[in-house]
Amino acid sequence: MTDKAWDALTTAIKMNDKVVALAGTVKEQQARIEGLTERVIRLETTLDLLLRANEVKKIKG
């Protein structure tokens, strides 16, 4: 009986360690996604400004 309880406790501790590690990985991935999102927003803004500048140039030119 003691062995089964010990095995269950060991399994629970291992599972907790895996959950903690997974949470760290998820946090890192979320930070990377947020960084990429920021980059995409900047690229979209730059593209929009360039396209508008090109339109103004065509109208004036």
Write up this protein.
The protein is mainly α and 61 residues long. 97% of the residues lie in helices and 0% in strands. The chain has 1 helix and no strands. It has one helix at residues 2-60.
State Rg: 26 Å
Main β sheet profile: none
Q: Estimate what percentage of residues fall within beta strands.
A: under 5%
Percent helix, as a range, is over 70%
Number of strands: 0
Features of this protein?
61 residues, mainly alpha, 97% helix
Please render the helix and strand layout as text.
Layout lengths: L1 H59 L1
What is the gist of this entry?
With 61 residues, the protein is mainly α. It contains 1 helix and no strands.
